[in-house]
Amino acid sequence: MQLALTPFLVGMTLGHLVFSPLSDRYGRGAPLPAGAVICAVATALCAMAPSLWWLVALRFVTGFSGAAGVAIGRAVVADVAEDAAAARLVGVLMTLGGIAPVVAPPTGGAVIGAFGRRGPSGCWRRSRRW
Description:
Blueprint: H1 5-26, H2 31-47, H3 52-80, H4 83-115
Helix pairs in contact: 1-3, 2-3, 3-4
């Protein structure tokens, strides 16, 4: 399962290299929602991945598309604020980025506690081997 972290980080790195120039060329409006939708769909598919290799591939897609939020979020701060206001906004982004990894595991644990390891999607997959 640790194998799923590396493709996420590689995808996040490559996503920065793609989404930053795209947002500079086409504006912030199109790449950001596209990245968010792809990331959400890939994350949902990760929960239903039939094998480890599907999970690894989907984690890459999740990281790649998730980079849109990180890269474009910082660019938006540079677009709308200067000096002290920009520093404050970057501080808010950093705080949210620091809180999310702390809140995610207990939230995931609560979901698993409520629905089980396979969650709601497990009801139609009981016969398949995980």
